[in-house]
Amino acid sequence: MSEKEPTTELEEVDARVLHNPFRAFLEKITVRDFLVGILAIYFYYIIADDFVRQSLLNLTPGRFRELDLPFNILPEAVDSGTTYFTVFIAILVVLGLRSLGAGNLTPRQYDLRAQLIALLAALPFILYFILHIMWLKENDSSWYFDLIFMEEMAGFTLSNQWPFETVLQDSRWQFYRVGLYNAIRVVLLSIVGCTILGIFIGVSRLSRNRMLSGLAESYVEFFRNMPLVVQLFFLYTVVLGANLPPFSEIQEKTIMGWVFWSNRGFVLPGGGIENMSLFLAAIGVFLAARIYIRFTERLPPESSDTPPPAIPILVDILFSSSLLIVVYGIFNVVEWTYTINPADSDGSLGNLVERFFQSFFEGIPEKAPFSMFMLGMFLVTASALATFKLSELGMNPFTTDDSPEGLKKR
């Protein structure tokens, strides 16, 4: 019986797809997919190129004495083989990832194909580490894995030898046995102690006594949010009173004298305010924006007896200005060297008290920063009292305008 010939254009297309799936796959690739695939192949090639090259070099003749393979890589074929092999793997990985996104696979097929693609992508790195470790074992004595050194004399003593007695001439196996028993003892004691303490803290946390419950919660939150390294550092330096050696070995390990590093950590430069004028200007802009936003979100009072909200706005301005002055005083009060303790002071208590009171009356601009700080505190107190008084009189209403016009203003 002869095969039925396609009669329509759609059936002809379906027939070509069935007979040539590669052509159908190419027809589905857009320009965007093609460019993304080329970019992915390029990045994979950059990452895996050196690993593939070193792996092929380790497969050249005479590289390993113990590696007996039925084939070898010629040294002159390493460069071209690196390019072809890396590009081939990159193309297979990119095509495999595209097939995973097609959505025509069962869950089992998807998982199996994803595992194969991951193994294929990691193949250059796996081969590199395996072959390089084999090369290091043959050429570097420090990579020779053996336990013969455990039979040698330890050459040191232990402070806690229970339950075995050790001497200086014992082997490292004897000391290892003592350390193993001590570790088991500490673990068992920790399990028992933590169980008892955990039950007590847990029951206390569920207690109706607020003080007991609060103490238990504070204990749990402290140790839960405190890293173990910080806890050990605290116990080592504060409880035991040990002093850590200074970072003298990192003086040459620096980046332009700003960042220092070592196997113990990093030292970064601290932050500070170099230009106080710009800093205060930024705070002033922030406070002005706050006043403007509050003014635009405020609804006008409905009653005609209530005055317009100009007075509360002036109070906001006064409060913001006082905050600005207080910030200025806080950032400069550490430079307390002008009136309270001048260079020409005799150092007596009477002179100190006299100059302290003089700082309230001898001029605000000349006696900054402390006098500016005091002025800021005065303005904060005055504006707060004025705000409270206006609120009692009903002159400081604040209702957020959630209407479409108000939202448009925001």
Automatic annotation (TrEMBL):
Mode of membrane association: Multi-pass membrane protein
Species classification: unclassified sequences, metagenomes, ecological metagenomes
Location, primary (coarse class): membrane
GO cellular-component term (any): ATP-binding cassette (ABC) transporter complex
Claim: Ribonucleoprotein is one of the keywords in the record: no
Protein keywords: Amino-acid transport, Cell membrane, Membrane, Transmembrane, Transmembrane helix, Transport
Localization terms from the record: Cell membrane
Similarity field: Belongs to the binding-protein-dependent transport system permease family. HisMQ subfamily.
CDD domains associated with the record: TM_PBP2 (cd06261)
Membrane-spanning segments: 29-47, 84-105, 117-136, 183-207, 228-246, 266-289, 310-331, 370-388
GO process terms (BP): amino acid transport
One term of GO molecular function: transmembrane transporter activity
Keyword Membrane listed: yes
Identification of the protein by name: ABC transmembrane type-1 domain-containing protein
Listed InterPro entries: AA_ABC_transptr_permease_3TM (IPR010065), ArtM/GltK/GlnP/TcyL/YhdX-like (IPR043429), MetI-like (IPR000515), MetI-like_sf (IPR035906)
Organism: marine metagenome
